[in-house]
Amino acid sequence: MVLLVLAFLLLVAGAVNFSNLSIAASIKRAKEVGVRKVLGGRRKQLFWQFMGESILSCSISLCIAALLVVALMPWFKQEFNIQFPLLGANIPYLALQVALCIVTVILLSGLYPSVFLSRFNTSQILKGNYSQGKSGLKLRNLLLVLQFTLSTFFVFAVIVISSQVHYMQTRDKGFSGLK
Q1: CA–CA separation, 110 vs 50, rounded Å?
Q2: Are the beta carbons of 34 and 128 closer than 8 angstroms?
Q3: Using an 8 Å Cβ cutoff, are 50 and 110 in contact?
Q4: Residue 147: enclosing H or E segment and its boundaries?
């Protein structure tokens, strides 16, 4: 259960990081949005374009992650001396988990940037006056604080777990081998 919570927090940190990077890159794409709106692009079309880009990025990431899992699983099994089948009788359950994860990541990472990018004011952008508003700034600051908080948590968690593992490996356990 603890590993599941840690995995979920790591997933949230990655999604928030992707969202922050998308918003930061949106300044470069502001003129593109303005031109698309002048040429007749609707807000809904722009929203789905940016959501589509997010879906594509997440799908490519999922494929790369799956390849890494398959490639690194033998090393992982040998290094930690554990045996479990990657794909056993739980294929439907695994597929459901992967589908839920990908939908969660797409929503966490793509929803706000898509809404943010599709809301640009055409006339202001094309004039070069780019104002993001106070509510958007507050949300972006909240996302940054969340990202740095999760990053700090993971750094401390790695330090604590590393010191605990070192302690367990070097400390006398208080019993001798049974004969």
Answers
A1: 7
A2: no
A3: yes
A4: helix 134-170
Q: Are 14 and 105 in contact (CB under 8 A)?
A: yes
> Are the CB atoms for 21 and 111 separated by under 8 Å?
no
Q: pTM score > 0.70 for this model?
A: no
Per-residue tokens: 162: 């590393």
Per-residue tokens: 80: 């930690």
Q: Does residue 157 sit in helix, strand or coil?
A: helix
Task: Give the model's pLDDT for residue 102.
Answer: 87
State the DSSP string of 49-90: HHHHHHHHHHHHHHHHHHHHHHHHHHHHHHHHT----SSSTT
Spatial distance between the Cα atoms of 7 and 101, rounded to a whole number of angstroms: 11
The pLDDT score that the predictor gives to residue 133 is 57
Residues 6+ apart with CB under 8 A from 62: 98, 102
What does the block give as tokens for 11? Answer: 């997933």
Report the pLDDT value the prediction gives residue 129, as an integer from 0 to 100. 67
Of 121, 140, 117, 120, give the one whose Cα is nearest residue 50. Answer: 117
The parts of the chain modelled with pLDDT lower than 50 are none
Contact 110, 58 (CB under 8 A): yes
What pLDDT shows up at residue 64? 95
